[in-house]
Structure to design on (350 residues):
């Protein structure tokens, strides 16, 4: 899976442990699915996963790893990936924008990405097969990028991996979970909370001002393939300025987060949150205590992690000059498990 700031790879055993404690649980909502690492692990553990994310690239990853079962696409996808790998490069918008105006990818790989992505569009593939080959392309590009892990900036000199040749690989898809088929949606989190029903909900919301759309704008363009207007040295999509989530606003976070929690139609809610977030641990405890109700419970586990590599390296301006100090090198991730004392009004009406 792609490199991702905030990935819960190391937290997955704890998340699975909490879900397994809900003995009757068969289905889990992953409300902010991101790279679908958590949804993938839950599917592998046998649960029916309902993965949601409002960014197109994240919905596409969930469509591949959560919604698609290996038996549905293995023969067609394997053949198609071999065909796409054989295409010669043909530079276009992607090469011009992300290899020449900026330096996220070597031009030889940019030309291959252009050619392969255009061919995928021409084929008009079915929903799940399209997801598999697009994710294969995204992961192939991720393996030859020249960044520290986010697409806010690129390295001054080519990363060694950027000089390797782009190669698509068949994603490691899973068999269908015993609890039922997965589902991927691209709704706003509040809409998803209102529309999806399951036994457990897992929430890993954005927790500060940093937008995942801005951090991974190239993947959004690769999936949408819409040749957007761009700005700045990182050639970010223009809609990075306008597609703002309330969860990336300190002023709006609390009210919107509460509205999401109150809309959920599940008896158990698991929340992952960082001590770098807008809410303090005390504030989060109060919010989740209200969700639990008078007879519910809120439990928590705290993990200590190194911060992502960009934070450890420091801050640089577009000329490659170091302009900031490295702050703290570690952060705390808190996993909360809320068992609600009674159904919400939405559940009773349903």
């Amino acid at each position: 899976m792609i490199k991702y700031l905030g990935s819960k790879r190391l937290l997955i055993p704890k998340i699975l442990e909490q879900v397994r404690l809900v003995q009757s649980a068969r289905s889990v909502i992953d409300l902010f699915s991101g790279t679908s690492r958590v949804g993938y692990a839950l599917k592998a553990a046998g649960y029916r996963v309902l993965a949601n994310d409002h960014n197109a690239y994240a919905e596409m990853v969930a469509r591949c790893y959560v919604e698609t079962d290996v038996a549905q696409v293995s023969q067609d996808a394997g053949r198609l990936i071999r065909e796409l790998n054989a295409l010669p490069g043909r530079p276009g918008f992607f090469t011009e924008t992300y290899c020449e105006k900026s330096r996220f990818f070597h031009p030889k790989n940019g030309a291959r990405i252009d050619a392969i992505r255009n061919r995928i569009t021409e084929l008009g593939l079915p929903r799940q097969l399209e997801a598999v080959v697009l994710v294969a392309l995204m992961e192939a590009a991720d393996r030859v990028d020249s960044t520290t892990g986010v697409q806010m900036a690129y390295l001054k000199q080519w990363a060694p991996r950027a000089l390797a040749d782009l190669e698509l690989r068949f994603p490691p898809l899973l068999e269908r979970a015993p609890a039922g088929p997965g589902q991927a949606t691209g709704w706003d989190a509040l809409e998803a909370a209102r529309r999806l029903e399951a036994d457990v909900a897992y929430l890993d919301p954005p927790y500060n001002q940093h937008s995942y759309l801005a951090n991974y704008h190239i993947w959004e363009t690769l999936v949408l393939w819409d040749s957007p207007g761009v700005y700045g040295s990182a050639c970010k999509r223009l809609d990075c300025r306008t597609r703002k989530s309330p969860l990336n606003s300190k002023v709006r976070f609390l009210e919107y987060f509460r509205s999401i929690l109150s809309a959920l139609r599940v008896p158990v809610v698991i929340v992952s949150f960082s001590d770098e977030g807008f809410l303090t641990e005390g504030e989060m405890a109060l919010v989740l205590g209200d969700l639990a109700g008078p007879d519910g419970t809120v439990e928590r586990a705290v993990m200590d992690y190194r911060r992502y590599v960009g934070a450890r390296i420091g801050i640089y301006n577009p000329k490659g000059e170091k302009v900031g100090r490295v702050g703290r090198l570690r952060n705390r991730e808190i996993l909360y498990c809320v068992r609600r004392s009674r159904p919400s009004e939405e559940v009773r009406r349903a």
